[in-house]
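testing teh design pipeline on a random one, pls ignore if ur not involved
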């Protein structure tokens, strides 16, 4: 992969945060603010776009596929 095909650092950091488990309500949102400097709404917008990015799938297929399944399940509930 050349640099044009790699995810940026922020995208990699988002995927890394998604791989972690969080204990208790608000812990993930606090980590989003403190570690990434993003508002949770913006974080979830970026994450949703990442799930459709083939570079993200190549970088972390387990996490991306898990999150895609969760997203599809939520769409099915609507």
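output:
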């Amino acid at each position: 992969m050349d640099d044009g095909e790699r995810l940026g650092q922020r995208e990699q950091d988002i995927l890394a945060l998604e791989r972690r488990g969080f204990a208790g309500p608000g812990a993930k949102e606090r980590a989003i603010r403190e570690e990434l400097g993003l508002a949770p709404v913006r974080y979830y917008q970026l994450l949703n776009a990442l799930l459709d990015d083939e570079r993200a799938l190549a970088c972390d297929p387990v996490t991306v596929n898990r999150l895609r399944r969760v997203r599809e399940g939520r769409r099915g509930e609507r």
